[in-house]
Amino acid sequence: MLNSVTPEFEASLRETLPQAAFRPLTASYLEEPRGRYTGQGGLLVAPANTEEVATVVRACAAAKVGVVPYGGGTGLVGGQIMETGPMPVILSLERMKDIRAVYPDENVLVADAGAILADVQQAAEQHGRLFPLSLASEGSARIGGNLATNAGGVNVLRYGNARDLCLGLEAVLPDGSILNGLTRLRKDNTGYDLRNLLIGSEGSLGIITAAALKLFPRPAAEGAALMVVEDPAAALSLLAMASRRIGGGVSAFELIGRMGLEFLAETMPEVRQPFADKPNWMVLIDLGLGAGQDPATALEELFVEAFQAGIVSDGVIAQSEAQRADFWAIRESIPAANRKIGAVSSHDISVPLGAISDFVAKGNAALADIADFRVNAFGHLGDGNLHYNVFPQRGKSRQDYEHLRPQVKRCVHDLVHEFGGSVSAEHGVGRLKVEDMERYADPAKLAAIRAIKAALDPDGIMNPGVIVRGA
Amino acid sequence: MLNSVTPEFEASLRETLPQAAFRPLTASYLEEPRGRYTGQGGLLVAPANTEEVATVVRACAAAKVGVVPYGGGTGLVGGQIMETGPMPVILSLERMKDIRAVYPDENVLVADAGAILADVQQAAEQHGRLFPLSLASEGSARIGGNLATNAGGVNVLRYGNARDLCLGLEAVLPDGSILNGLTRLRKDNTGYDLRNLLIGSEGSLGIITAAALKLFPRPAAEGAALMVVEDPAAALSLLAMASRRIGGGVSAFELIGRMGLEFLAETMPEVRQPFADKPNWMVLIDLGLGAGQDPATALEELFVEAFQAGIVSDGVIAQSEAQRADFWAIRESIPAANRKIGAVSSHDISVPLGAISDFVAKGNAALADIADFRVNAFGHLGDGNLHYNVFPQRGKSRQDYEHLRPQVKRCVHDLVHEFGGSVSAEHGVGRLKVEDMERYADPAKLAAIRAIKAALDPDGIMNPGVIVRGA
């Protein structure tokens, strides 16, 4: 059993750390973006460096006090909020936000875990490089949290998720020891892959304190198009055609359904609709090409071949960077429109690529049997990752359906499981989906996860209640 | 402590498995390519399916008998050979060699762990797709072994190593339970990354029985060039220029030193030398481009820019597929030439990209202080992975230097460690480098590896002595 932070514990910690490490616990540390979790409080500590993180964790390990790592606070599954149990230490990385070094010739950047994602992107850009992790909350999310949750975003198709963008990690393990794994090596086959074990462990096996990240050349020319397809299966055929024609140059391939466009028209009429008649499905294709290649030409040629093959029925190709930004504004406004409508239940799911069309059809039909929902399915088609979100009918509010939420979630997740999919494609498990893990995860996987947690964190101090229930 | 296989154990296993699972233990199971390890024997079992693998492992777990997983037997670090200790079961995957399914639209192939790498490549090709893992032993290596050792090869720069090419795994864990992780999902953030923990664990945490692998579109056009550079630093500048100009189209970027060309002239005069005067350093650049792009033109333009910048001094661009094959024959003949010369000590190392030139200079100087060696440094420059191999002077043999081998190895590995590099970039630890792990690995990493091993394999039955010493 864990213990609560006590005045004695705090006093003792104050003797070993500089005064600056202690900050007031404002409300922002106890809230999260979707308003589903509220923290109970705790002792906020903001160490200035890795040694201080280790000092805090050692103190917590000795006193069996829980540690909740806190990055940018943008997580969507309650991983940063501990609502119940003994009062924890909330360990914020906010003071460890330096870009430690950039090695442009090696395409490597080393950052403190508390560096804001947008700052990492900017530091790469200043050296003529690209750090491709990109997601809605990049202005406040911190790279340590991005790695702890294996964040995804819009460029996964081309560059991979956070896991794929990390070469090495420095971390403080649950016993307070420092893992010095901040390698810039592209290849290192010496022993178990602790880096990937920590990435995606959501703070439950240790606290990431710094990371060596992969950079990429910036594309010489970028372009985008919107193309209308009949259904997600046609979108997949278009993606295969684009990959064959353009190779690795396809940076993003985002699926947008008619409901998303209707939500935009309803809540954000200032966003310009790309087609006079809202199509049932369209895709946003984004290209980044090398020297001497013209994205608009490549997209035109793709459109012609796809049109002749009956895969696309309409399309528009960005003629300027401004028009490309307009296309992206459509995609990026959909989450905001969703929030204005107010979801009954949101699902960050993935299914095998070939099953997406079938999944959407079956999911919509099953939900219609429950109530008169509106479903907005959109997302990263090339990754098989759909944000499959369920909304009230026009004129009703989410409160009208609140009692149905568990049933909706169960219906969608059961179907995902039936299709061999994942109930958390990119947001993680956090505290929100621990029950789902218990219901859907392979028993051998669950047993191995519990054994690893017990081996590395025998007292269960690291982010208690995340991924697996406390001992 | 483990127990030896006994006649009673074998008799009991024969009652639970079909007769076909038992094959004679021929010498080939007790040898390895470099002739440094000789197996002591054991009971060879070749299960027909995953259930039978689980049956064997459960029996071994109950009797505390060691299990040595055996794939293609091509490993270079003794991971497949147990020389000492209680007689183990040698569990060969040779009868589990089916391609289970191909999903061309999803770019996914599912194979049994015993499938030969070349057969996986061919199955992908039959569906118009590419499985890019490619290495010298691909005609006999099995995909399960490739994954267990996180194999590298020549296409890592573009497509990643075995780890990056795997979406999901099925495996039998040390307690005989079956991990059903054979997902085709591109994104799945539900719990710890057991896939990547098993990949690279070299059979010490379980036996991979099947894998879902990533496929890629086949490039529309391929091309290659050899370009002469002053040193590895210039090669790195050339790679940066190529990446900027050609983006993701650079499939391979191999560094070849003068000594490799001299070894070829000495032992394989039939291999045509590309330049009249052997250059100190050259690189083999291989491109795979999309529709409408011409690799020869791209390489010409790259050469012109690099020549004008003073980065390259000479070059030749393949004008046909046959000439491209000739270029590759040079690169691929170097390991054979090395074997004919006979290495005193071979090192599969990596250092940060920016340190390669410095490392080679310091390494050569340090070795010259020991004896009159010839050093052949070559490898996958874009990955920072050098095969840094030390040979006898002309007219002498490896036996003349045998007594210096430990000193040579220690000298090279100490230097690698000093540069923040890895003493096993792609071959793994096996039994060969357990001592190196103990000497060079971060203490927190070693402790975590031992804790995970103890948690998942408390009796230490899985590939005893690999990566970490037995309990």
From TrEMBL, chains A, B:
GO MF, one example:
FAD binding
Q: Does the keyword Cell cycle apply?
A: no
Report which residue ranges the record marks as coiled coil. Answer: none
Q: Which cofactor does it need?
A: FAD
Which InterPro entries does the entry mention? FAD-bd_oxidored_4_C (IPR004113), FAD-bd_PCMH (IPR016166), FAD-bd_PCMH-like_sf (IPR036318), FAD-bd_PCMH_sub1 (IPR016167), FAD-bd_PCMH_sub2 (IPR016169), FAD-linked_Oxase-like_C (IPR016164), FAD-oxidored/transferase_4 (IPR051264), Oxid_FAD_bind_N (IPR006094)
Q: What is its EC number?
A: 1.-.-.-
Q: Does the keyword Flavoprotein apply?
A: yes
Give me any GO biological process, just one: respiratory electron transport chain
Q: Which residues form the FAD-binding PCMH-type domain?
A: 37-218
- Provide the alphabetized UniProt keywords: FAD, Flavoprotein, Oxidoreductase
A Pfam family this chain is assigned to: FAD-oxidase_C
Q: Report the sequence similarity comment from the record.
A: Belongs to the FAD-binding oxidoreductase/transferase type 4 family.
Which named protein is this?
A: Putative FAD-linked oxidoreductase
- Which species expresses this protein natively? Actibacterium lipolyticum
